[in-house]
Amino acid sequence: ETDARARLERHLADGSAAERFARMVAAQGGPSDVLAWAAPPAPVVVPVPAAASGWITEIATRSLGLAVIELGGGRTRPEQTIDHTVGLADVRGLGERVEAGQPLAFVHGRNDDAARTIATRLAAAFTIAETAPAPAPVIVERL
Asked: Cα(129)–Cα(75) distance, rounded to whole angstroms?
């Protein structure tokens, strides 16, 4: 496992993993310059710190989606443009253990004030409890 992880990290760092991905996309009829399509990074990245230590038991996902729209990464009317540099990254999931202050997500924004406002609001979208949630069933319903 240690060797495999080291090889993976090396291929990510040297760009060979991205090059292989681009070749796969092109081989399937996609654009040969897919790597050039990557959006530039957002000017500001702000962490959303956990208010307490514990387990993530609920996430108000609608709040996360509305935050992306407010940042400019979505739209409420068809004529609005989408800013592909803004949004959320590394969002923690249900059932994950976090420590107080540890990032629950990262807000990528155009300016510091907007990103910090969104980060403060998003901290409330995560419910953290002292006990781990029961695992969700793998099969919810048979049709």
From this structure: 33
